[in-house]
Amino acid sequence: MALLSKIFRFCPGVLSRVRPIKTYWGHRDFDFSDDSDDGISTYGEKPDPQAPLPPGMKMDYEPIPTEYFYNLAGIQKPRAPQPSYMAIVKDQQVWHIFNASTITLGRMASKIAQLIQAKHRPNYTHDHLLSDEQADFIVVVNGKYPLLLGTKGKMKIYRHHTTYPGHLHELNIRQILSKACWKRVVEQAVGGMLPKNKLREKYMKRLYVFPEIYHNFDFLPQFVQRSAPDPNKVLAVEDFKDPKLKIVWAQDPENIPEELKHLKYEPEDLETPFHKRNPRPVPYNNREKKISAKYFRTLRRYKVFEHRAQKFEIK
């Protein structure tokens, strides 16, 4: 009884706070003038394609966002060729600019290690540095988005110990690049290829890493990011805005017009999912299995890790 009394005491307070439901009375007049017509009485059973469009119908297509198109179609975004390296001479100094998004991390680091030690100069010595007036300086842009192939973008681990028992910190490369210590990826790759002596710290002071494609040096040129191919131009979406365009549905593939019979027509199976339309061929012996496995391993090895991958949802 005590529980029931508490419930009845609580219910009036809840009901008083519930918002009333908005209702529409039956005698209210609604306007169905636009969508009550089936179109036959106004436009006839066979409407003219050149006639003006019915009210509410739109034939203007808005541009398709590039990222949305490639993610929705399940196609890897084509990588437009980007500038990767240039050298600028200033007096007796040479400034080397690298784009980390176009050269694999290890190859770029090995090249930087040679240039920063001035091994390509005739006056190179291994026991002392050249003066700053004759030295080589390295500028790395897009250091926050290095080019990683295969599974390195997900599996590469960075470890450091604080010298306290049990304080071994392990972070993968994605966590490192998302933190304030993102420079560690490029600096550790270059530093690991330099001699382990007192000169390494002095070499590293001549390395400048920037997160994006632009750097802060006014006397050096900048790289320009080239965009991927625009799907609107590939699919010719702008042609759909032509008022003289005539759209005919391919409901009768057997009666193809004479001027189009030379084209190869393959009806698409819309009921079968994409991943089941062209399944991987089944090898018939062990040799074929090894060749097939080696081929797909090669594809995984050279797959580019996308740092800026975005997810889109259909609303």
TrEMBL record:
Organism: Stentor coeruleus
Protein family (similarity comment): Belongs to the universal ribosomal protein uL13 family.
Pfam families registered for this protein in UniProt: Ribosomal_L13 (PF00572)
Region (Disordered): 36-55
Gene Ontology cellular component annotations, sorted alphabetically: mitochondrial large ribosomal subunit
Biological process, per Gene Ontology: negative regulation of translation; translation
SUPFAM superfamilies to which the protein is assigned, alphabetical: Ribosomal protein L13 (SSF52161)
Molecular-function annotations in GO: mRNA binding; structural constituent of ribosome
Keywords: Ribonucleoprotein, Ribosomal protein
Protein name (record): Ribosomal protein L13
